[in-house]
User: What shape does this take?
Amino acid sequence: MPDTVSKHCLSFDVEEHFQVSAFESPMRRRHWDQYESRVEANTDKLLELLGGRGVRATFFVLGWVAERYSSLVRRIASAGHEIASHGYAHELITAQTPAAFRDDIRKAKGILENILSKPVLGYRAPSFSITKDTMWATQILVEEGYAYDSSIFPVLHDRYGVPSANPEVHQLLTTSGLLWEVPPSTVEYLGVRVPVAGGGYFRLYPYPLLRTLLRKLESKGSSLVMYMHPWEFDPKQPRMEGSILSRLRHYMNLDKTELRLRALLQDFAFSPIQEAFPQIAEPRTLRTEASINVRGNCFNAG
Assistant: This one.
């Protein structure tokens, strides 16, 4: 697809394969620096793939990664992609106090902005951990200078999700001001919202089925907000110990991810989130009721 401004958005959450929440443990976290790092090579592979198709995306970069691989952040930005924040230490907001969350997102934003010498406006929580119990995080995001969030997943899930959340791109009115919300894509089936946003779902669903579901959303003018991670393009990554369910979610069909992404890029056009929705960067004024929901399509990987 040609590199034009599209209302479809593509994004990736840039983190190491050993930092995923499914394999989280205090002992493992203390030894992060002892694991083999693969994030730089995996992300460079993605940059080459996207560059070959003339596709630009939004990369939600973990502060921990940016701190160690600042040149990688610069390469992503130099290729025309948007840099956004994935927090610093990949800690679930559900396990943080408001003060700890503030410190985490402030640290990540500072690291990224020091590397880029420009403001970072977007945020996505580790494992979409803004839930009904942690909506206080949206207020803190506004206070810390973020303009949009992409963390509220309108689905029922054992670890995340707000089933009743607005599935469209929209504005949230917090006690500290306005915040744009860019939720991952879902499709309604038998009265239940089913995730089609990317990640494990992208690897689970047969691609023809996924394409049909995305076309269905597109035909309604709804947002397609999907996500992936660089480690999902690395089938040879070292295997981590964990529960059967965690290992299934993490390792299933890793060898198919690249081919499916290539097919997706052939079938849909994508732009970074800020370009697809330029009003995100405008002064924070509440839109009229008719324009609170923004119709468009966004794809996230990360």
